[in-house]
Amino acid sequence: RVILHQALRNAIAQNELELYYQPKISAQDGHIHGFEALLRWNHPQNGLTGPGVFIPLAERFGLIGTIGAWVIEQACAQLGQWKREGVDCRVAINLSPHQLRNPRLPQLIEAALRKNHIEPSRLVCEITETALMENVDSESEVMKQIAALGVRLSIDDFGTGYSSLAHLRRVPAKQLKIDRSFVADLEEVSEGRAVVNAIVQLAHALSIEVVAEGVETHEQLRTLRELGCDVLQGYAIARPMPAGAVARWLAAEKLTRDERLQPGTAFAPV
Ligand code: C2E
Ligand code: CA
Ligand code: CA
Q1: Per residue in 20-76, pLDDT tens?
Q2: Where are the alpha helices (DSSP H) in the chain?
């Protein structure tokens, strides 16, 4: 524990953290909707470690505030760089429940946006449904302030947290992400389709945009489009990639999309 704590504490200073970016595409026309920034830790001995392992540790060690602030700063700097290169997109970051307890979080976000000359609507903050359920008044105040900046809030892992309809209406979210377990169930469980359909209808009734995550097969992709999902994300479209690979992917993707949009061509991911 001590060694890990020290290593994680040093990770920022040693430049070992990196954001990978996974595309989200519009379900209707395949246009790029944006990217989700996903944190990676390149440890000199242990290699590339996923956030599923070290984020819970960072939370336990009290390091998530520092790491989270780095993510905000880094994502905004990347948006700034892409803007200068003519890449016009949104970036979503993940916020942990601990970060929402920091009353200075809205200022932190605002400062990073301003420093990099980014329009607030370019940034999306993903917050898990479970974190929303735990939230107390002060956290919901923080969320309101973030939303008031013009930053979009997205409810992550939706469907795993048993939130009530009343609760959902009180959250100033513009988007929800159907948890990937429901996407996987589309092919495995007979009621899978009905569940996703119900979530899409509920979200649309509340004017909330629906993202399906963890889309791995063309069959899932087709079904999700049929059910009216707005945005798709998953290995069937692209895996998370380093920032440096994004321009190349966009160029290749554009070619495929232009082909794909020809009359008579069926929609297919790259
Ligand atoms: P998440 O926010 O639900 O992110 C989606 C996860 O699903 C990512 O795992 C992504 O690589 C993976 N994924 C994407 N498409 C597919 C697919 O088609 N199939 C499957 N099986 N998986 C897919 P990753 O990158 O390991 O991240 C795990 C979790 O760690 C994230 O879940 C998020 O909760 C957390 N996380 C990642 N980056 C950050 C961060 O900067 N801050 C905080 N607080 N949490 C983060
Ligand atoms: Ca997420
Ligand atoms: Ca998720």
Answers
A1: 999 999 999 999 999 999 999 998 888 888 999 899 999 999 999 999 999 999 999
A2: 2-13, 51-60, 64-84, 97-100, 105-115, 129-134, 137-149, 165-170, 180-188, 192-205, 218-226, 243-260
Strands 209-212 and 17-26: unpaired
Q: 208: number of CA atoms within 13 Å, CB side?
A: 27
For the Cβ of 125 lying below 6 angstroms from any atom of ligand 1, the answer is no
Residues 129/163, Cβ–Cβ less than 8 Å: yes
Smallest CA separation from ligand 1 atom 28, residue: 52
Q: Is the Cβ atom of 156 under 6 angstroms away from ligand 1?
A: yes
Q: Is 216 in the pocket of ligand 1 (CB under 6 A)?
A: yes
> Is 193 in contact with 200 (CB distance < 8 Å)?
no
Please tell me the pTM assigned to this model: 0.94
Which three-class secondary structure state does DSSP give residue 90?
Answer: coil
Contact 220, 183 (CB under 8 A): yes
